[in-house]
Design goal:
about 1200 residues; six-stranded mixed beta sheet; about 10% strand; binds zinc ion
């Protein structure tokens, strides 16, 4: 080592006492120390004295710019004289005690730890080693160790590990020496390789000799050794060693002893440490088995129950809960198979497709395989717990997911298909050839084009070559109870609905009166006639006295409907809920101009479902009038998750208290299983969009519910819609949906489920309301096998739980994930819109194609009629730019339909804005891309068992007809140089708040992915940003901050990316609406309702008008500048930070969402934390090192935030 030079800058007087001593020491360093040990002793002794007595001395030595530490360290290195060494160690100890972190950091950076280890090794060669020296060295190492991330490696390489462990073995009674040795051991053990090595040297057994039952003595010793044990047991090898040594029951006994005796809770740190040991041991299957065998579940359950009342003991309860959940035996769902209860026989099954694979699996493949640590025998002690592994994978895949292939980022103007092939789609663009010669512009009211001009009406099941139309399946044909074939599947001809419109009043009123007075149990469709079922109706039969009152209500309602007297705002009395309010029934015919009960039933008849549903759910029949008040986000109570989990654990501890009574089961032919015994709720979901598969009564007022998988699939559950009846008034019921799949949910962040009460509806309040308390979403003990999940690990399910009570006797209530919007509702709304069409509106409804299930996919054209049939006007008419919209490719995202409803109503409206908009554009709209999924209660897929929004690159005309033909329409437009100005696909987002957009930007993607790109690639105009920017200014629910314009690889077959790349539409978007609510803007703090969703759809139109104004005033080049201006002061996108969001944007809870034990503890164990963080950054320098995990606190916290990539649900 070069001799360091004494520096004396920075105002430190070079002639101070300390400096003089240091200078003398420096002179001695080297041979001098050996030659003149007495002098060395004197100088170091004086220096020590000075430091101990004068505070400024240590500052002088350690001040910046001086080399005091170097001098001290080099003198320490060059001396072999024990008293001198001890003096220097004491000096260091004094210096490092103050100024904490920084000084220790300086010490480490100057190589201090290596010097200490060398002294340790050489002192160990003496026999017996100098105890004082060992004590001092270990004390110092314990102090600086956490600052040196390589200490673990150095200690192992120098052999210091063994020195320390041997020292501990020989000094079990020597508390003074034992304590620093244990502290150092704790630091060493944080390194995983060290932990294994120490385990081999008997460290586990050694720690159990020190950790003792409750005692008031030596608690610091016990605490440190428990900490060391926690670190050691993170290694699976060590955990196995502990299990084999029967230490699991020892740990439980120790914990129980401390729990019982530490009555003043002075040693919760030790208790927590013991739990942490148990937690680590139970990371291996062997450990979980031993834990269960040692009655661990009961011990921890009882002890934590006793802790519940003391809030400061929460960390103990949380830690116990975490261990219990882990050891809770994994179960398969109580189902014969997790494959969907209904199967749809596909005509064409691709051998390599998901359906073929799924159905070729051997039976019983759903069986749970608890293999979360099955690799324990081959493990190299990587020590990932399952959760974190998934986390990392997700995180990594998210970063990897950004598209980096520059070729794929360029719009790809391939001549996709020959024009001959696309020519059949000409029929969907009649407006481009229509000359309106037969149309009378003078008196348009008498000669509406949609009714008279034959050429406009294109009811076109034949629009496509026959081979594109799926024939009805054998199943459909053979079943006699299928919707009558005499009824046309979907009658979108205007003439048909013109007629309906004319006769609406009578057709509307009479049957309604009749229906409501009879108060049906449910509306039923029987073959070709709607019939009202009366058997034991809970509403009418037991209490017919209700009817007169209801009748009056209806009568009033009908009068109002005729007179049109009441107005939307007059719902003042709606919250009173008294019977008297019935007389002031709101006129739903006025409030819901697009709702028509009879028409709805007609529409249902033409809707084809795989289970052949014959019932109509009341909410869809009556319609939904949004309440006039806003519904706040639910504030989450502290400890909800924990109490729910404890109730789940209680099932295991006290199985006799569980009823386990199946009350509804689609897999049983006799479903519903329970007719009516007064002791159980009755369930039903055999109606459009319903998807309850099984209901099990667990306790008197608690039910486990299982949702059906998407048809031809074995998963995708999130959406739910079911009916409940037979309830008791005022009783709190708990519902647990136990097969949810996503790892987190907005149910943890203020969202409530929706409830619809039929009694409320017939009292004049037909509406869905947010409902439920004690709402929580957490991982449960049900799982499925790795084979069932497609070769990955077996996956756990999640429970969504909520409690609610009912306020009406003999009610029929419905629960739903989000405001339902059925396919039949869409058809009803479309025909009403058509019937109410003003003459100046050009509206055409075509059938794009038939779905696999035999339902028609509607396709709309909306624009303004030309001013006249002069060639100028016709020319303007034909040359309007196209706007192409679609929605509901994902059936569970009903919010998308409500937004679409808002868009359609606005477009068909009479406002000046709407008229201007229609004159500006031609709208082409596919309002429901996945009718089959919607009808059958799917969450994500179509009948092919596939996510249709992953098929856009190469849609199969047989399996994905709606996508195939929608894409063809766009290809046709591109081919005729008429690609739309804007393409937008409406979606719903289940894990974020607000409404926002995803778009495609070459530049922002390149920028995010850090790939090098030619400067020409960065020449991208900002047109894609204009629309979302306008929306953020005018739509209160819209949030620009949540938008993203980065192209991800996993999304390359979505509508947005394909339309951008293949069709060349720069403004190609996905618009995502929250299912929960808003955390910004006017609706901040409120859950979203249909009013807000529809408003969003209308604002989308207004935004298009603004976009048009800019294009109308300027030519295209100017437009870009204008849009840039609009975007704000930042002229370059680079200066405008991208909005690519990597994480959920939700704050974490005090009570973490998932495994939550340690994330929020008030951990006073600074030492442990420091040690853990030191360990977490240990490097792989020597190749054999295993990168250490995050500290517990960090990883658990991360856990709480764990989520799938936020964009994944589009
Ligand atoms: Zn979606």
């Amino acid at each position: 080592m070069n001799k360091p030079k004494m520096a004396s800058e920075k105002g430190v007087p070079s002639n101070s006492r300390a400096q003089i001593l240091l200078a003398q020491l420096e002179k001695l360093t080297g041979d001098g120390m050996v030659r003149d040990p007495e002098m060395a002793r004197q100088i170091t002794s004086k220096l020590l004295h000075l430091i101990q007595t004068q505070e400024k001395t240590s500052k002088e030595v350690m001040s910046k710019g001086t080399s005091g530490m170097e001098v001290i360290l080099s003198s320490l290195e060059s001396t072999r004289d024990i008293p001198t060494i001890l003096n220097i160690l004491c000096i260091l100890s004094e210096l490092l005690t103050l100024g904490k972190g920084r000084r220790a950091g300086v010490f480490v950076s100057k190589g201090g730890t290596a010097v200490l280890l060398r002294i340790l090794i050489s002192a160990n060669k003496e026999f017996p080693p100098n105890e004082e020296l060992m004590l001092q060295v270990h004390s110092l190492l314990a102090k600086v160790g956490p600052k040196d991330r390589k200490l673990g490696v150095k200690a192992r390489l120098t052999g210091a590990l063994n020195v320390t462990i041997n020292l501990i073995k020989k000094n079990l009674q020597n508390v003074k020496l034992l304590l620093p040795c244990l502290q150092v051991l704790r630091v060493y053990s944080a390194n995983m390789v060290n932990a294994i090595s120490l385990g081999n040297s008997g460290a586990i057994e050694l720690m159990f000799k020190i950790v003792a039952p409750y005692s008031k003595k030596n608690t610091s010793l016990i605490k440190v050794s428990v900490d060391a044990l926690v670190a050691l047991l993170k290694s699976k090898t060590n955990a196995r060693r502990a299990v084999e040594g029967s230490y699991v029951s020892t740990l439980l006994a120790l914990y129980l002893d401390w729990h019982r005796n530490d009555t003043w809770h002075r040693h919760t740190v030790i208790r927590k440490g013991l739990l942490a040991c148990l937690r680590n041991v139970t990371n291996i299957k062997l450990g979980r088995r031993a834990f269960t065998k040692a009655d661990g579940m009961r011990i921890l359950y009882n002890s934590s129950s006793e802790c519940l009342s003391v809030r400061t003991l929460d960390p103990l309860v949380n830690a116990s809960s975490l261990i219990m959940r882990k050891c809770f035996p994994k179960n398969r769902l109580p189902l014969p198979t997790i494959k969907s209860a209904f199967h749809y026989q596909l005509e064409h099954v691709l051998a390599s497709g998901p359906v073929a694979q799924r159905y070729s699996q051997p039976p019983g493949v759903d069986d749970v395989v608890d293999d979360s640590d099955d690799n324990e025998d081959t493990e190299a002690d990587t020590e990932n717990d399952t959760e974190n592994e998934e986390d990392e994978k997700e995180c990594r895949s998210l970063n990897d997911d950004i598209e980096k292939d520059i070729n794929k980022l360029h719009p790809q103007k391939i001549p996709s298909r020959p024009y001959e092939e696309l020519r059949v789609y000409e029929k969907f663009f009649v407006e481009l050839s229509e000359d309106f010669q037969g149309y009378n512009f003078e008196s348009p009211t008498t000669s509406s084009p949609a009714q008279s001009a034959q050429s406009i009406v294109v009811p076109t099941p034949q629009a496509l070559p026959p081979n594109h139309i799926t024939a009805p399946t054998a199943q459909n044909v053979s079943n006699a109870s299928a919707p009558a074939p005499t009824i046309p599947p979907l009658q979108l001809e205007t003439s048909q609905f013109g007629k309906d419109f004319n006769t609406k009043e009578e057709a509307h009123n009479q049957p309604v009166e009749q229906d409501w007075s009879q108060a049906p149990e449910y509306v039923s469709l029987n073959a070709d006639e709607m019939r009202v079922k009366q058997k034991g109706s809970p509403i009418s039969a037991p209490k017919p006295t209700q009817s007169p009152l209801l009748l009056e209500g209806i009568a009033i309602r009908c009068l109002a409907a005729g007179g049109g007297g009441s107005d939307c705002g007059s719902e003042g009395g709606e919250d009173e809920g008294s019977e008297g309010a019935v007389l002031e029934v709101p006129d739903t015919a006025q409030l819901l101009p697009l709702h028509d009960l009879d028409l709805y039933v007609e529409m249902v008849k033409g809707t084809k479902s795989v289970p052949h549903y014959t019932e109509v759910a009341y909410p869809d029949y009556f319609g939904h009038v949004p309440p006039t008040y806003r519904e706040s986000l639910l504030e989450r109570l502290y400890g909800v998750q924990r109490s729910k989990i404890f109730q789940d654990i209680e099932r295991l501890i006290h199985p006799n208290n569980i009823m386990d009574k199946v009350v509804y089961d689609l897999d049983m032919p006799s479903c519903p299983v329970i007719e009516s015994d007064g002791e159980s709720l009755r369930f039903n979901s055999k109606f459009e969009s319903g998807n309850l598969r099984k209901a099990i009564q667990i306790r008197k007022y608690e039910y486990d519910l299982i949702l059906n998988s998407d048809i031809n699939s074995n998963h995708h559950h999130q959406w739910f819609y079911f009916e409940v009846s037979g309830m008791r008034v005022g009783t709190m019921y708990r519902f647990n949906i136990i097969n949810c799949e996503k790892s987190n949910s907005q149910f943890n962040y203020g969202m409530q489920a929706l409830m619809y009460s039929v009694q409320e509806a017939i009292s004049g309040r037909p509406r869905w309301v947010r409902t439920g308390t004690d709402i929580c979403y957490y991982k449960n003990n049900f799982a499925r096998s790795s084979i069932a999940t497609g070769g990955q690990k077996g996956k756990s399910y999640y429970t969504m739980t909520f409690s609610t009570s009912f306020s009406h006797k003999d009610d029929v209530c419905y629960f739903s994930y989000h405001y339902p919007y059925t396919y039949s509702s869409l058809k009803m709304h479309l025909s009403k819109l058509e019937a109410m069409r003003a003459p100046e509106i050009y509206l055409r409804q075509d059938v794009l194609c038939e779905t696999l299930g035999g339902n028609s996919c509607p396709f709309l054209t909306i624009t303004a009629m030309p001013e006249s049939n002069s060639s100028d006007h016709i020319c303007q008419f034909r040359n309007r730019p196209f706007i192409f919209l679609s929605a509901r490719v994902h059936p569970g995202e009903t919010n998308a339909s409500w937004v679409m409803k808002g868009t359609l109503e606005f477009l068909m409206g009479t406002s000046l804005l709407a008229a201007t908009l229609r004159e500006a554009y031609i709208f082409k709209i596919v309002p429901m891309l996945n009718p089959d999924g919607v009808v059958n209660g799917n969450h994500r897929c179509s009948l092919s068992g596939e996510d249709l929004n992953r098929q856009w690159q190469n849609p199969n005309p047989e399996l994905h007809p709606t996508i195939y033909h929608t894409k063809s329409l766009l290809q046709y437009l591109a081919h005729t140089q008429r690609a739309p100005l804007v393409f937008c696909d409406y979606h719903g987002h289940s894990r974020k708040k607000n409404v926002f957009m995803y778009g495609c930007s070459l530049k922002e993607t390149i920028w995010q992915s850090n790939i090098s790109a030619a400067s020409s690639d960065l020449q991208e105009d900002l047109a894609y940003r204009a629309l979302p920017k306008i929306l953020s200014q005018i739509a209160p629910a819209f949030s620009m901050a949540s938008c993203s314009f980065v192209v991800e690889r996993s999304k390359e077959s979505t509508a947005r990316v394909v339309v951008w790349r293949e069709i060349g539409v720069q403004r190609s978007y996905t618009m995502e609406s929250t299912v929960c609510g808003c955390d910004q803007g006017k609706y901040k703090g409120f859950q979203i309702g249909t009013r807000e969703l529809e408003e969003m759809g209308a604002q989308f139109c207004v935004a298009l008008l603004r976009l048009k104004r800019m294009t109308g005033l300027h030519n295209h080049q100017h437009l870009l500048d204008l849009e840039s201006d609009l975007i704000g002061t930042q002229p370059k996108v680079v200066s405008c930070p991208t909005t690519y969001v990597m994480d959920e944007d939700e704050p974490s809870f005090l009570e973490a969402v998932d495994y939550s034990a340690e994330s929020n503890d008030d951990d006073t164990e600074v030492d442990l934390e420091a040690a853990a963080s030191a360990a977490s950054i240990a490097t792989t320098e020597d190749g054999g090192e295993v990168p250490d995990r995050l500290s517990d606190a960090e990883s658990n916290n991360h856990d709480a935030w764990k989520s799938e990539p936020v964009t994944s649900s589009q």
